[in-house]
Amino acid sequence: MAEYDIIVIGGGSAGSAVAGRLSEDPNLSICLLEAGGRNNGVRVKTPGLLPFLPNNTNWRFDTVPQKGLNGRIGYQPRGRGLGGSSAINAMVYIRGSKWDYDNWAASQSDGGEGCAGWSYDDVLPYFKRSESNERGGNDFHGADGPLSVSDQHWSNPLSKAFVKATEELQLPRNNDFNGETQEGYGFYQVTQKKGERWSAARAYIEPHRNRSNLHIRTGALVARLETGEGRVIGVTLKNLLGEETLHARKAVILSAGAFGTPHILQLSGIGPGAHLQEHGINVVHDNAHIGSHLQDHLDYVASFETPDSDASFGSSLAGTARMAKALVEHRRRRTGILTTPYAESGGFARSAPDVPSPDIQYHFVPAMLEDHGRENVKGHGFSCHACVLRPESKGTVRLASTNPKAAPAIDPNFLTDERDMAVLRAGIRTMYRIFDAPALRDYQPQDRYPVNLDNDDVLDAIIRERSDTVYHPVGTCRMGPNDDDPLTPRLKFRGLEGLYVADASVMPKIVSGNTNAPSIMIGERCADFVKEDLRS
């Protein structure tokens, strides 16, 4: 049986950060387990090849039928392989708002809040430590961290028109969504370096592959955690020859994501007791909150066709020829069109004046998107996403099978709280105001799904017909101050020694923005917590 001091399960955004930081101590032996591959191919590294990623980089989960979405089954892509979702996402670098983290730390018990040590002032140093921003360091940004953050050095004319349209409406311009204020519109910074995708694995793992104390195992599917005498003592893997167990002398850190973490815990007999017994699993630790409180950003995509084929990505002979030339340029110089993150511009807005912090986010894409980009749409145009940043609807992640290769049952429970519908209505109405400004109207856009914005019932109907996730699930193994919260605010598991969790599942409330940067921050913090605990 192989033994290590610390086993990290999952090489995604948080897992890469925690394993990389812990391996800085040569006295600790670290084993990083990742079910997928290395994710170091050209298609992963080239930002503009996002629509053409290899199938094995994505778990391609589905939801259970969503009653709030007319019974539709939603799509839940999740990164598979080193870097996790940071290897397949749109590379948008957003941390969330100051209000989010101060709310986590607020001295309340409702909803799992009251996480001491997680205020904005507490987490900002970790964001800065992780970041190497090409603009340089300042009060809000780091310049020497492993995660490369850059401006976009090429932007589509339509993306520029979106920002100009917001200025024509006298909406606020924001050149740094992670600075003094989040509200406003502009261009996103991205996790890229010299024109290539800079995933968490490229930041924290790949530079340190030669460390003798860092053992990286890809293709390692975890079947369950091993426990004994109230402690997690190891990990059992499923492989072609059967099973293999690894022993952890000091700790196991679970970083499998908001779906994978509760799934592995439940397969290990850790979770809602009655549910585990239904599947014939011996209950090791009964906690109904594991796999509960799933929150995700619900997203509505408006799509417009334009006659101009030169100003957008699209399916046409001209578009194909342009992308072929762009591929040659990118391979030679790492510049040009294929540095695009697709979600090039966007912004943050409030659904009402009394909202404490922006609760709507926009991602503008200079291409027509259908079904998460899985449907090939002929022609050229643009799309814009409007998403509810702080949803009240909450769902679950449960076992669908005891087979570790089987996907979990994912139920985001979208739009079961009417407050989310009200926010999304407001977001869509503001979005259409922007579409009607001269800068975008000049492109003669034709709405592919016209909607009567003056009629709530009609608007609600198309929202239920077309909305789905924008890929930010969190909260299924939350930290909090209460005895029944699965984790302490130091990310230690309550009820079993030797177990930590570091990924988006620990969030007590979803952040107001993309979740990659916060997950990396969580990994950074977990590494410090573990080091401190081992010294004590």
If you had to describe this structure to a student in words, what would you say it looks like?
This protein has helices at residues 13-22, 42-45, 98-105, 120-130, 157-168, 200-204, 257-267, 273-278, 317-333, 418-435, 438-441, 456-466, 516-535, and strands at residues 3-9, 30-34, 61-66, 72-76, 131-133, 147-149, 184-187, 192-193, 196-197, 214-218, 221-228, 231-239, 242-254, 270-271, 285-286, 298-305, 314-315, 345-349, 360-365, 379-388, 396-398, 409-411, 446-447, 468-469, 499-501. By secondary structure, it is of the alpha/beta class. The strands form 7 sheets. Strands 7, 16, 17, 18, 19, 20, 23 and 24 form an 8-stranded antiparallel sheet that branches. Strands 1, 2, 10, 11, 12, 13 and 25 form a 7-stranded mixed sheet that branches. A two-stranded antiparallel sheet has the order 3-4. Helix 8 links the parallel strand 14 (270-271) and strand 15. The relative contact order is 0.19.
Task: Please report which band the strand proportion falls in: under 5%, 5-15%, 15-25%, 25-35%, 35-45% or over 45%.
Answer: 15-25%
Task: Enumerate the spans where pLDDT stays under 50 for 5 or more consecutive residues.
Answer: none
- Summing up helix and strand content along with how strands pair, one would put the structural category as alpha/beta
Largest sheet: 8 strands, antiparallel
Mean of pLDDT: 96
The tally of structural domains comes to 2
